[in-house]
Amino acid sequence: xxxxxxxxxxxxxxxxxxSGMGRALTEILVDLGAxxxxxxxxEPPVPGITKAIITDLGNKESIDAAFExxxxxxxxxxxxxxxxxxxxxxxxxxxxxxxANKYVTDAYLTERVAEGGSISFVTSNGGLRWETPTxxxxxIPFADGDSWDDLVRRFGGFEAEFGTxxxxxxxxxxxxxxxxxxxxxxxxFADLRKIRINAVLPAMTVSGMLPEFAEMKGGQDAxxxxxxxxxxxxxxxxxxxxxxxxxxxxxxxxSGAHLSVDFGMNARQIAGLEPDRLxxxxxxxxxxxxxx
Length: 292
Ligand SMILES: NC(=O)c1ccc[n+]([C@@H]2O[C@H](COP(=O)([O-])OP(=O)(O)OC[C@H]3O[C@@H](n4cnc5c(N)ncnc54)[C@H](O)[C@@H]3O)[C@@H](O)[C@H]2O)c1
What we know:
The chain is an alpha/beta fold. The chain has helices at about 20-30, 60-65, 90-110, 135-145, 150-160, 165-195, 210-215, 220-225, 235-245, 265-270, 280-285, and strands at about 10-15, 35-40, 50-55, 75-80, 115-120, 195-200, 205, 235, 260. It has 11 helices and 9 strands.
């Protein structure tokens, strides 16, 4: 039988490997024969991983220490970890969800991902409409160049201007930023070593994060009332399977894809068949300007 995925013997890194989508992905990758370096702030309970590395992605030194334990060449990176922002500050949310992923990419993945390798991030359907001109204008200044500390300062500047901003708005901004960042890095990674870079954008999914999203939406009933064509919430493994595909040889000509795994919810919004409430800018909301 052909090894269509091509993970056998490959070295891959998964963040957020202890729960939800990252855990489900780690189980699949181990099963497909990959050597998995699993990063999380708690011990990932997955048998067969090559190395579990306790890491706080909100802390640059902790990330540096983790990468000291990761081989100099890797074949795949999956940035799955994230926080909802519901019980996190604006800055903490942006740090874990965006700054850490950008830092890992710039400081380590450009050096370590092998020829023809892949980088996949989990962003969110909450980060849709990142490409609309007014939203994109807000994202461009953060995508290139700045160091970890500069980004922390600049995100802090939003709060200096507008006061305390809810972490849930930080969540949306972080996911939009990561979506833009992926598109922006397609060409440089292609030039470097034909490395592919993609995103999975999940709809609401059963995972460790679900209770916080339910709280934000006003309870489990509100979640159940907004399930879309799928008629149920997604399971974490359904995101993991798509991630396993995107990072594999099966997706060898796929780069710059922002794959909504939502049973068609986004398609219906784009087609005008459902209301689209996502086109607002952060500045617009914070200044209480009319939503675009
Ligand atoms: N569950 C949903 O409805 C949903 C929807 C859209 C997008 N997402 C995204 O999916 C991704 C995976 O989340 P999930 O739903 O599987 O949730 P989860 O809470 O089950 O898993 C997240 C994992 O990330 C780890 N993590 C969080 N902060 C960390 C840090 N500072 N350092 C190291 N590890 C850290 C957690 O320990 C946990 O194991 C996230 O990026 C999330 O934003 C989730």
